[in-house]
Amino acid sequence: MLDWLLGLGGSPKIRPKHLQDIVEQLLSQQRPGSGEQPFPLNERELKRLCGAAKEVLLKDPSLVELRTDAQVVVVGDLHGQYQDLQRIFERLGRPGSDPKVWVFLGDYIDGVRRGMRGWPMGLEIVATLLALKLRHPTQVFMLRGNHECSEITVLFGFCGECQRRSTLAVWEAVMQVFDALPLAAQLNGSVFLCHGGISPHLKRPQDINEIRRPLDVNPNGEGLLCDLLWADPSANISGWCPNPRGVSYVFGLDVAQRWMRDNGLRAIVRAHMVQQTGFEVLGNNEVMTVFSAADYRESGGWPGLALDVGPVGTGAGVKALAASQPCWMFWSTGWLPGCAGWRG
Known about the structure:
alpha/beta; EC 3.1.3.16; protein phosphatase; hydrolase; single chain; manganese
C-alpha cells in the first residue's frame, strides 16, 4: 500500500480508493484473536492516516452543529470491542452506503482481554473510523470521550496495545488525533450530544466553541472540558453533587431540564456509563445514555446498544429516541427484532 498517498510535503492527501481499501481490509477481520496479532497497517501508513485525520477533524468546530433531514445513528462507548462495531455496520449499514449521519460519542479504546474474544482491538476501531471520517467527512462525526487522553490510555491499556501491535510512535500520532477531536454536537438545534454531560460552567452549548483545539486533557482537572467528558446524570439527586468517580459532577434531572429549557433543547444524548440494558432514559425521554460495548468488562452478558434516530426537530422526532423501533441492541449471537441487542 506504499502508493496510497498523493502529494509531497505538507498534509498527506489520501486517495478515496485507498481509504475504502483500509476500511475493507480491517472490517474483513473476523477472528476474535486478531487483537493479538501485529496491526495490518504499518507505522508509516498509520501515521499518515492520523495526520490527515487530524487536519480534517480540526475543521469541525468544538461544538459540531448538525443540520440534517437524514437519519442519525448514535454510537456510545466501544472500548476496543471491534466486533461490536462490525455488528453495528452489519445491521445498520456502513457510513456512506446511504444518507445516514453517524455520531460516535467517544471511548473508542482501552478495553480488556476477555476470554475467547481475546485482546482489545482499539487500533482497528480508531483506524476504521478515521478512514471513514476522511472518506465521508459530512456523514461521520467523532466526539471525544474521557478515555481519549494520553494519561488514561497509559493506565487502561491502549498505549500498551500500540506498543504490542505497532509502535510507540503510532500511539503518539493517535494521541495527536485525540487532542483534535470535537467535544460535543447539537442536532438540528434540538438534541445535545456529548460523552459525559453538561457543566455548571456551560450556560449555552455555543460556549463550547471557546475551547481551542488541539489540546490535551488533564484527567484530574476541572472545568467545562472535564465535565463534558466525565459528568454523569442521576434521577436520584437534585442540583449538582460530587461525582463518585472522583472527577467532575453528577447532575440531577432538574438541572438538565432547566438547562434544556433555557437553550430550547428537547434531549441530551450521552454515553460514559455502562448500562444493564445498553441504555438508560431519564425523565420524559430527556436524558439518554447509550453504551455500545456489549458485556463490557464481563458485566454478566449486558447488551450494547446503538441508536438509529429519525429526523429530529419535532417533538415526535425526539420521542423516537426512546421508542423500540429506532433502538438497536445487539448480542454476539446476533440481532433480535425491534428493540433488540447483542451480548458479548
